[in-house]
Amino acid sequence: MPKQIAPQLWQTNFAQHPLFSGYRGMAGIFSVLENWPAADRLTAEAQTRDLRNAADQPLAFDSQTDACGQRDYEAQILATGRVPTRVANWHDFFNALVWLNFPRLKAALNAVQCDALAQRGTERGARSDAATVFDESGAVLIGPDAKLAEQLQNHDWKGAFVEQRERWQTNHLLIVGHAVLEKALAPYPGMITKALYLPWPALDSPLENPPEGLDASLAEYWQNGTAQRPADLFAIPVLGVPGMDPANTNPTYYDNRTVFRAQRKPI
Question: pTM of the predicted model, to two decimals?
């Protein structure tokens, strides 16, 4: 018998953490519900926005009750536009939420995965691994200051989070990995996202929705093969970002070396 999936409890305040920056508008559609949105409710939102997969088929969400392997999962989305979705499951609900918020990015990631599987058979390959990491745990840092991204890549945590703290007023970290959104329900210090940087005009906080054009830019990033391996993404301990944890206003917050680790020296 296939493994059955246990239901989880619905929370109307699921988007209260600052990690949901850029999702407030979309989350507001569902936070008023008394219970989990059914798959057809998610599909209705996709249809209202005329969302489509990489093959230009209408996007829909199918209720999933049994486990599904990655190959079949990705192939179904590209072939039919239908996303297998476990109801009463935070991981899959947040996956749907990201589809609704970043549909072109999600379609591009699905196409990358299917292309890699078609070319390599059972072997995933580095580009597929990068797409999977970004799909599950990814984020995009946007803003006019590439120095922040450079400091984060170099694990200069106090440089990026303390010395340059004011720059986070106009530079923003937007989560696109649904696993990170799920963790935001019960955040913990070691939460990590794998990010890429896109130059962007300065924007004031807070962001209710993704800025116009960001979804298309992210999709283009993956379509062009800019990321070829997981190492092309850089790690960010997300609770260290100013505004994500009230405790990080104290510079000693970043002395925790189990979270804010020094950069490994090349071998």
Answer: 0.94
